[in-house]
Structures are given as structure tokens and as C-alpha cells.
């Protein structure tokens, strides 16, 4: 009787470890479902939208300009941020807000990216804390799942003027 | 013939079953609990790699102890390099967030480490690419805590957190 219970417990434990590990690998290397909160990516992603993020392109270093990525916040590693990549290393970016009369620009240092929210008026991003190391990026958002009316790939940036083409 | 086929099928099935258990468990263990790594370069002399080029140390990297991003001053940690994300660097934590540190050759003479950041330095000043070159690093880049030297056997030891006395932070928030 006791041996039966023991055997059952061990089997359940083994299965939970196995599936836990498979889940960890899937979430770490393939991707997962993420609920976004906060106004910084409006109108592309509204508050509490559900999106699918894939992590392969981040591990393969194939993040491109214009992608929306999930990264660890540079000031608080336990929280995540969701922003659009405006410039990769070596790119020229505008560091000033669009309302400023004089445009300041600078170059993104090696190993870093420049992240900005689509809602330029209400977003804490690289304009506030500077370029973000690439190592903080954890995933790339590829499509939206919820609400169902907007199911599909995400829109291009509404702030095309923020990209520098040289 | 039919028996042989049945045996082959069973063998393949068992192989795949084992494969799907072993690979995820191993990957998760290496990602979350601990892994080993070889230290290259001279930036941590004399704590690591004292012999120079010919003898490189193998260290145990503990991922579990930093799962909440808790480190002490003096710990040896590995980080994703802020300048090259494909590379990991191994350095000593000199100052935590809120500390004021006197720098060696950074663009500012005194730096207050910002919230969520660390100041890391190699033990071999002048031969180390560390916070004196790239500034404070974000805690999110933290990879693991080096706790033991495993190889070569005569150097087997636990790595103690030690801050060189001349590199103590000038002021910290707790005091």
C-alpha cells in the first residue's frame, strides 16, 4: 500500500519535472503568449492586448529595425518593457522629442539598440534612459492574438519620421 | 523478420522517449541551476587564470543564487557583455545601486551607480574591459555567480567575496 503511494508520487514528480523542463525550454527558446499592459505602444498595441512573442530571432541576433521587442527594463530587471526598435548599433537616431525645435541626434553605441514606444507622448524609453544593451532583449512580438478583430501581424510604426535613413 | 522489426521499432521509441526527457531536463538545469565555463583572458588575475595563457581555470557558475538578482559587493559574476551580446564577461562586483565609487579612467571621476545597475571591475586593473570603460551595467545582463574553481584540481577552491580595500565604495545608501 505504502509502496504503491510512493511509486505514484514519484511518477507524478518525475512527470512534473519533465513537463516543467519542456515548458521552460519552450518559453525560453521558442516563444510564448504575453499580455501587454500600459499605454506606451498605443495605437499598435492597446492596454491588455494579448500577443505572441518568439524568442528565436533574439537568440540568433536577427532583430531588425522596426521590430517590436520585449526587453528587461534597464532600471529594474524584474519588469519587462515592450518597445519598437528605432535604431541598431551604429545607426543615427534622434534623441530629442519631436516637439523640440532643434533636433539632437546621436549614434547608437556598439552592442546596443535604441527603443521607443509608439505613443511618443506617453512612453518611458531610450529618450529617457539612453540606448539599451542588446543582452536585455528577450523576445520579438510577431502577431496579436486578442482582441480577435485585430488578429494578425502588427502595424508598421506610426512614427516613420523617427527613423533616420543614413 | 517481423520480430526484428518490432524490436527496432521499440528501440526507436525508447530512444525518442529518453531523448525528450534528457534534453529539456539538461537544458533547464544548465539554464537555471548551474553550469561550468572556462575563463579566458587575463582580466581577473590574480583571482582567476594566475598562470597566464597556458593555464585557464574552469569555474562553476551558479544561476540559482542570482534568480532574484541578489549579489553582494565582492562577488565574482558573469554578465552578458554590454558591448557584444554574443560574449560573456566575468568580473567582480565593486559597487551596488546607490553607491558612490571613485573610478579609474572613466569619463567621470566619481559615479553614483544608478538604480538597477552594478559597477563591475576586473581584478587586473588596466588590463580589464570593465565598468571603467563602459560605465555601470544593468542588472538584467547578470548571467551567473561564479562560486567555485573546479579545474585545475590543485586550484580547487571556493571563491570568497572580497573587495580590494582601496576599491571600497565611498558612500552607500544604507549608511
From TrEMBL, chain A:
Belongs to the peptidase S26 family. IMP1 subfamily. It comes from the Eukaryota. Its EC number is 3.4.21.-. It is an enzyme of class 3 (hydrolase). Residues 21-94, 103-146 form the Peptidase S26 domain. The keyword Hydrolase applies. Keywords: Hydrolase, Membrane, Mitochondrion, Mitochondrion inner membrane, Protease. This is Mitochondrial inner membrane protease subunit.
UniProtKB/TrEMBL annotation, chain B:
GO terms for biological process: protein processing involved in protein targeting to mitochondrion; signal peptide processing. The keyword Hydrolase applies. InterPro entries: IMP2, LexA/Signal_pep-like_sf, Pept_S26A_signal_pept_1, Pept_S26A_signal_pept_1_CS, Peptidase_S26. GO terms for cellular component: mitochondrial inner membrane peptidase complex. It holds the Pfam family Peptidase_S26. Keywords: Hydrolase, Membrane, Mitochondrion, Mitochondrion inner membrane, Protease, Transmembrane, Transmembrane helix. Residues 14-102, 107-151 form the Peptidase S26 domain. CDD domains: S26_SPase_I. Its main location: mitochondrion. It is found in: Mitochondrion inner membrane. It is a single-pass membrane protein. One of its GO terms (molecular function) is serine-type endopeptidase activity. It comes from the Eukaryota. Its EC number is 3.4.21.-. The active site is at 43, 91. NCBIfam families: sigpep_I_bact. Heterodimer of 2 subunits, IMMPL1 and IMMPL2. Belongs to the peptidase S26 family. IMP2 subfamily. This is Mitochondrial inner membrane protease subunit. It comes from Sphenodon punctatus (Tuatara).
Amino acid at each position: 500500500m505504502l509502496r504503491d503511494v510512493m511509486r505514484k508520487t514519484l511518477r507524478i514528480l518525475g512527470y512534473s519535472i519533465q513537463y516543467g523542463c519542456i515548458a521552460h525550454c519552450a518559453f525560453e527558446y521558442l516563444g510564448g503568449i504575453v499580455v501587454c499592459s500600459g499605454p506606451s505602444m498605443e495605437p499598435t498595441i492597446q492596454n491588455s492586448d494579448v500577443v505572441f512573442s518568439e524568442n528565436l530571432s533574439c537568440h540568433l541576433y536577427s532583430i531588425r529595425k522596426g521590430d517590436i521587442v520585449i526587453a528587461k527594463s534597464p532600471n529594474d530587471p524584474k519588469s519587462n518593457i515592450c518597445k519598437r526598435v528605432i535604431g541598431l548599433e551604429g545607426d543615427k537616431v534622434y534623441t530629442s522629442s519631436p516637439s523640440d525645435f532643434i533636433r539632437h541626434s546621436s549614434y547608437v553605441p556598439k552592442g546596443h539598440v535604441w527603443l521607443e514606444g509608439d505613443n511618443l507622448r506617453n512612453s518611458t524609453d531610450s529618450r529617457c534612459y539612453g540606448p539599451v544593451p542588446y543582452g536585455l532583449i528577450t523576445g520579438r512580438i510577431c502577431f496579436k492574438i486578442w482582441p480577435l478583430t485585430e488578429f494578425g501581424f502588427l502595424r508598421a510604426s506610426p512614427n516613420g519620421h523617427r527613423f533616420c535613413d543614413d | 523478420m517481423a520480430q526484428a522489426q518490432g524490436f527496432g521499432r521499440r528501440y526507436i521509441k525508447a530512444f525518442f522517449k529518453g531523448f525528450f526527457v534528457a534534453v529539456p531536463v539538461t537544458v533547464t538545469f544548465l539554464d537555471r541551476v548551474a553550469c561550468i565555463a572556462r575563463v579566458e583572458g587575463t582580466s581577473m588575475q590574480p583571482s582567476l587564470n594566475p598562470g597566464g595563457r597556458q593555464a585557464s581555470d574552469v569555474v562553476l557558475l551558479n544561476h540559482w543564487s542570482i534568480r532574484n538578482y541578489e549579489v553582494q559587493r565582492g562577488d565574482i559574476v558573469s554578465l552578458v557583455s554590454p558591448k557584444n551580446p554574443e560574449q560573456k564577461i566575468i568580473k567582480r562586483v565593486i559597487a551596488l545601486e546607490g553607491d558612490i565609487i571613485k573610478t579609474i579612467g572613466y569619463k567621470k571621476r566619481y559615479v553614483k551607480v544608478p538604480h538597477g545597475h552594478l559597477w563591475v571591475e576586473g581584478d587586473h586593473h588596466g588590463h580589464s574591459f570593465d565598468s571603467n570603460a563602459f560605465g555601470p551595467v544593468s542588472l538584467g545582463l547578470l548571467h551567473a555567480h561564479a562560486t567555485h574553481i573546479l579545474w585545475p584540481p590543485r586550484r580547487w577552491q571556493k571563491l570568497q567575496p572580497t573587495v580590494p580595500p582601496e576599491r571600497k565604495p565611498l558612500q552607500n545608501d544604507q549608511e
